[in-house]
């Protein structure tokens, strides 16, 4: 495996790398091997496209997106055929060749939120990973691990960088994160978690007794009832003597 400078590497980050598959005999260059990799058996999470450089070397392109491919990976090679005998094919070779994908230098997924009247507005930045299927948005009412649920009914396109959650209650706090989805429908790790509250635009309902007159020196009682869709923290009475 080599980087853009042609140097051999066994740890990779964001970018495109060349994977060189070498054979000990001449192979049929009309038949491409199946070269793939993944973290677990059967190691076919991602398949490489490439071409023959010679009868004994096949080179494939391997684009890496750290947020999606991160971790320890294993190559799998199969189905290449010998040039002088098409019945002689490579078996399933896996586990011998491995590499690591590191997050060093990876761009962060940054999510921001804004409370609005009747909704919570979300926007994010994630410009480096442009070859993807899109995004998913997750929400929680507590912010605790395992409590987040996906709220978009279908994947948001890679062109979208904002989302407005209108299924919220005013005054109630909600927590959010988003993930990147690749074309194989694999999701990245979550972004940062942001929280916000929809703005309450409903005024409280106030009812009180009306005193048109009182007798001097005799105490008077004023009663009031205050109701609000979120809650009442306190009431202050203002009055004027004429």
TrEMBL record:
It comes from human gut metagenome. This is Peptidase S8 and S53, subtilisin, kexin, sedolisin. The lineage of its organism: unclassified sequences, metagenomes, organismal metagenomes.
